[in-house]
Specification:
Blueprint (H helix, E strand, L loop, with lengths): L1 H15 L6 H20 L1 H19 L2 H4 L20 H24 L7 H4 L4 H4 L4 H15 L4 H11 L11 H8 L4 H12 L5 H13 L9 H12 L1 H6 L1 H8 L1
Helix pairs in contact: 1-2, 2-5, 3-5, 8-9, 9-11, 10-11, 12-13
Length: 256
């Protein structure tokens, strides 16, 4: 079962490690996974039958089919596990493994990506894909959180016009945060600031871990006495090396 759900979560984990991923896409990925996991949780019998079927095939190859088709013994006093009431192996594994594991994964994802835990997900409500499912009152209430946390008092005034601006625009839900930022310039100054913050926010710890890896390559024992400005410059060159290689001549003219 762990292998099955690991294969399900692996594409999402890889996507969350992308450099170009923003908070809106991260939230959408997690919501899709949660919907699928909840559908499995609502129908545990089907999931249990599939897992037992796959396990039986593997068990037959190694001569352990009897262990799969039978239930563990029940004793009066258990120390390491509970006595789950069941009349069949399928029901036993459903109650002892499938349901607890599904609940654990769902609860973990909901807790880790809960919108009330971080104001950054409140910023994602400024995206047209999020605004279409919200009323003006709910959007205004969300912007009050943004205004207080990021010191953007005028965003509460701009948000209603911002929602109306995207109401009749075609394909607005498919645009990235970078695309909608262009529309916020001039007429929506506080909204523009909020979108810039949203773009700069890292969705996961991968961005930080990449900088740590770069720092480990740079700050060796031979460079342990370098100044802060030199270390910052080398770190920026390492992190954004593609930009430097793409404009190598201009970089050499400015530095050399």
């Amino acid at each position: 079962m762990i292998a099955k759900y690991s294969a399900l979560l692996e594409p999402v984990v890889n996507a969350l490690q992308s450099i170009a991923l923003d908070v809106v896409k991260a939230s959408q990925y997690v919501k899709r996974i949660l919907q699928l996991l909840k559908s499995h949780r609502d129908n545990p019998e089907r999931v249990t039958d599939e897992i037992i079927k796959d396990a039986t095939v593997v068990a037959e190859k190694v001569g352990l089919e009897e262990d799969i088709t039978s239930m563990p013994r029940i004793v009066g006093k258990q120390r390491h596990r509970s006595n789950h009431p069941a009349e069949s192996p399928s029901e036993f594994w459903k109650r002892s493994l499938i349901i607890p594991y599904s609940d654990s994964v769902i609860t973990s994802l909901e807790t880790r990506f809960a919108e009330e835990n971080t104001p950054s997900f409140a910023l994602s409500k400024l995206h047209p894909a999020q605004m279409q499912t919200m009323s003006v009152e709910n959007l205004t209430e969300t912007c009050e959180t943004i205004a207080q946390f990021y010191n953007l008092p005028n965003i509460k005034i701009e948000v209603e016009l911002w929602q109306q601006f995207w109401h009749n625009k075609p394909n607005s839900t498919d645009q990235t945060v970078v695309d909608i930022l262009k529309e916020a310039k001039t007429f929506f100054p506080d909204t523009e600031k909020a979108l810039k913050i949203l773009i700069a926010l890292p969705c996961t710890t991968c961005t930080v871990e990449r900088s740590f890896s770069s720092l480990r390559r740079l700050k060796t024992w031979l460079r342990s006495t370098m100044s802060e400005n030199r270390l910052n410059g080398l770190a920026m060159m390492s992190v954004h090396r593609k930009l430097i290689h793409g404009n190598l001549q201009d970089f050499n003219n400015k530095v050399v």
